[in-house]
Write a structure and sequence with these properties.
The protein has 10 helices and 9 strands. The protein is α/β, with parallel strands linked by helices. It has helices spanning 14-23, 34-45, 66-78, 92-102, 115-132, 144-155, 158-161, 207-214, 217-239, 257-271; strands spanning 2-8, 27-29, 53-57, 82-89, 135-138, 165-172, 183-186, 244-251, 275-280.
Length: 287
Amino acid sequence: MEVLIISGLSGGGKSKTASFLEDMGFYIVDNMPAAMILKFAEFCAGGNGRYDRVALVYDVRTASSFTELFEVLDKLKAMEGVCRMLFLEASPECIIKRYKETRRRHPLRAGADSLEAAVRQERELMQPVRDRADLVIDTSRLSTAQLRGELLRLFGDAEEKGGMAVNVTSFGFKYGLPLEADLVFDVRFMPNPFYVEELRPQTGLDQAVSDYVFHFQQTQDYLKCLKDLLAFSLPLYAEEGKTGLVIAVGCTGGHHRSVAVTHALAEFIRQQGYQVTENHRDMNRGS
């Protein structure tokens, strides 16, 4: 079993971190007192694998004494499994800006002269917890996507660490654009096999149709441009923390040209090391 305790400064990104970890398969419990953490971990350990990955959010609102938290940490680390503590922080200026944007009340604001004083008071208060943390992430300069990418790097399983998943789908413009598409490429300018009688009943997955489509220099040149574009942009999407990208290639009916180009693009993207699924939405649809 893996137990991750998420702590840190108010406004440091604990809530977003918990949401991302939940998407990654962690069972999340927010604001759990230290006195309950050990019992909850023991309960999860007896859950027959149901709670293999647990993340518990602990912050200043649940703290009466950090001594109890540290004792629990020591006991958890002595148990079978993995126990780590992640501390989220940001600069005082960044935290103040976030609170002003969200208009939420800082948990220590009632006992401080100003928001800035509350932020600095909490930083001093939480320093012993930061010192005990196994991992510290400063979110001051991280976008939401970059934070997600960092969490994937630290806590993602083998499949998630494999990188962004790419779905390449062909479609027919006559049936409408795929709603989930991130990138759309139009190949209706290519010579159409539909007008070749022996090719009409076939699809872009048939060798004869593929040979026809790629026989033309304009198709080859266009495919090279697409490959260059994707070789440049896919790593940037992945770097920004995007976990899934949908690429749609369309022709008139979604039977021939778009299918052939989609199949070629999927193979190229697979060779670049990405997880790829290939779909042909309208290939078997009636004219």
